[in-house]
Design a protein that fits this description.
Blueprint: H1 2-57, H2 61-140
Helix pairs in contact: 1-2
């Protein structure tokens, strides 16, 4: 039975490692998306500063509309990225839960194997003690209580 549990433990460890790898990938994707959002937000802010500076120097209405339209497209892009961010955060949470479950399964089987080994060792010690008691009884003829 412990051999079968050992095989199950190996499979669970592989599943745990796979879940951990998926979690790492999800976290990397989340970090990359956050960097993209930060970069686009910085670009938007820089563009707005440039627009305000040029407006202070005298900007035609047509050029102002072009600036505003471009800022609106940047805002739309940021909204899309923020929506993706929510999805990525949910994916990371799901991967974390998957890894936690896999880790818990591995730990449970590992603890079961440890308990079985301890029980076997205790049974061996008891058997050895009985054998020693029997040897003493045969040798000296007095039963030990």
């Amino acid at each position: 039975m412990s051999k079968a549990l050992g095989l199950v433990l190996d499979q669970r460890k592989k599943a745990e490692d796979q879940a951990l790898g998926q979690l790492a990938q999800a976290r990397q994707a989340l970090a990359a998306l956050q960097n993209k959002i930060n970069t686009l937000q910085k670009y938007r802010n820089d563009y707005l500063r440039e627009m305000q500076h040029k407006a202070g120097q005298g900007l035609t209405a047509v050029n102002m509309v072009h600036y505003q339209n471009f800022v609106a497209r940047l805002d739309s892009g940021l909204a899309d990225l923020n929506s993706q961010m929510t999805q990525h955060q949910q994916a990371v949470a799901a991967r974390e839960q998957g890894w936690r479950q896999a880790h818990q399964d591995t730990k449970a089987i590992d603890l079961l194997l440890e308990r079985k080994a301890n029980e076997a060792a205790l049974a061996g010690q008891r058997r050895e003690q009985r054998e020693l008691d029997d040897l003493v009884n045969r040798r000296f003829g007095t039963p030990i209580a």
